[in-house]
């Protein structure tokens, strides 16, 4: 989706929350950086692995996506539409967090990565 926006040079007010266990699991970093520069799309990366596995120069956040992270990174979350992509467990968990933040199902779109529990 981001690649398509770049190809069409279409600016959107997007905030991407991307969670990986380790820095080596972060993919499409160059694409997201280009989207930031060219389209103003903001990407927030967070690592969930053990603290000793997080590089000291890691520029992103540490820990799972939770209500506090969403509130801090997306202050206008109540007006947003959320697109969730990942394992069934991740999508269910984030859907629950959004529910606690007052985001109804009509503002949540989901997609699952096949083969992930």
Structure description:
- The chain has 117 residues and is α/β, with parallel strands linked by helices.
- The protein has a single domain, classed as Nucleotide-binding domain of ferredoxin-NADP reductase (FNR) module (Rossmann fold, 3-Layer(aba) Sandwich).
- Helices cover 32% and strands 21% of the residues.
- The chain has helices at 2-8, 29-39, 67-73, 88-100, and strands at residues 15-20, 42-47, 61-62, 82-86, 108-112.
- Strands 1-2-3 form a three-stranded parallel beta sheet, covered by helices on one side. Strands 4-5 form a two-stranded parallel sheet.
- Strand 4, helix 4 and strand 5 form a beta-alpha-beta unit.
- Helix 1 crosses helix 2.
- It is globular and about 40 Å long.
Overview in brief:
This protein has helices at residues 2-8, 29-39, 67-73, 88-100, and strands at 15-20, 42-47, 61-62, 82-86, 108-112. It has 117 residues and is α/β, with parallel strands linked by helices.
